[in-house]
Structure formats: C-alpha cells, structure tokens
What does this fold into?
Amino acid sequence: MHRFFKNKQYEYPPNAIEVKHLSKQYKETTTLALNNISFNVKKGEIYGILGPNGAGKTTLMSILFGSIKPTMGSFSICGMTYKQRALRYKIGVVPQEYALYPTLTARENLTYFGSLYKLKNKELKPLIETALQRVGLTEVADKKIAHFSGGMKRRINLLAGILHNPEVLFLDEPTVGVDVQSKNIIIDYLKELNQGGMSILYTSHHLQEAQDFCHRVAILNEGSIIKENTPHNLIKEVKAYNLEEAFIQLTNNN
It folds into this structure.
C-alpha cells in the first residue's frame, strides 16, 4: 500500500505542514478559538496536538483539512495551500466521528471512499483486500457496518482515510472508545505507515498513547501553544513522571 510518487520537477518543502500565525474567531464570540498558532511538522514525523476540551484542537484540525477557514494567518501542506485542488489527494483524514455508511458493507464503504480519490477498480480491489487483511477484518468484509463493534468501525474508518496513500494523515482521536486489541492493531498499522514515509498529525486524550506514539507534541491550551517538544524532553523539562503528569501541570498553570 505504500505507493509514494516522486516528481523530479517538483521541489518538496522541508516540512510536511507549515503553520504561521494562525488565528480563528467564530462569529458572535469575543475570544479567539485559536490565537496566533505557529508550528511545523517535519516530513515523516508523528506530531501530536494535545489539549483539554475546548483548547482549540478540533478547530485547528478542521482548518488544516479544509472544512473551515482561518480568520488570520496561513498554512501549507506539502507546499500547497487549501486553494489548490491537488492538495486533497495528498492528505488523508480520519475523523473522530465515524465517516462510514452503516447500511453498506465494509468492502462497499472502502470501494466508495477509494473511488473518491479516482482509484480505479483494478487498482482499488487489491488495495482493499490487503488493507482488510492487515487490520484483521477480511472475514467480515461483506457485513454491514451497522453490525460492527466500535473497534471494528475504527479500523475501517482508518482504512477509508488511507487507501489513496496520502503523504500527510490527520488523525482525530483514532482509538477513542475501542478495545485493547483494536487499539494495538490501529497504532501498529499507523507506525508502519509512518515508517513508509507518511507524516501524521494526531490528536488524542490518551496521553500514554501519545507519549509512546508521537515524535513531538504541542500542548494547546485556550487557543495557544504553551509547550512544544519531544515527549521525553517535555516530561524532563517540567520534572514530571510521565506525559500525563506534565500535561496536568502545564494546563493547570495556564
């Protein structure tokens, strides 16, 4: 499934994602949901955005994958802006809410989402079979999503976002509400994709998972990034036992 294309005429930027002074204020509000956010995600990096409820994580992710527009600031992904249609083929989105059709089977869902990225059936069919096998769902591929457990839905939700092999993957709480087996399958598969070159921007409330999974993390609180570092260095910097303790210290003090 790792089909990374190289174009000699295209100069790839040094970062997968570049965010500069991004702010967002919703109508009828007096405060900023995002306040002058700047950060970069390196190519091949797993970067975590962590924060309490209402910190601005969902707003940030929604701006970056194009569902809402920022009030101020700019960003680029793979050197492109949201105004360039080609960008949609370079990114994958795995939302927290299931982006699946419950009355369709797993295989039908994946066929539909793959077709949105102009994957032809001859190419798409083996991709789907390989993906289903990798997440352990081949035997239930022709059952309707409505009959799947939460963990099984999460696995199909992930596959729907990565069938076209994006260069940058947005993950919003990819393991929320799943069993341990599904969680391990999802995280292991994501690590494989990352090792194949995929850059990942990830949000989660599972701080131990983030500590083990992310190369770097940013702590977002009240719309601003208050700390950014590797999990190890951030824990060391605030003299905490683990990332959860560091997170509590940092967000309680702001």
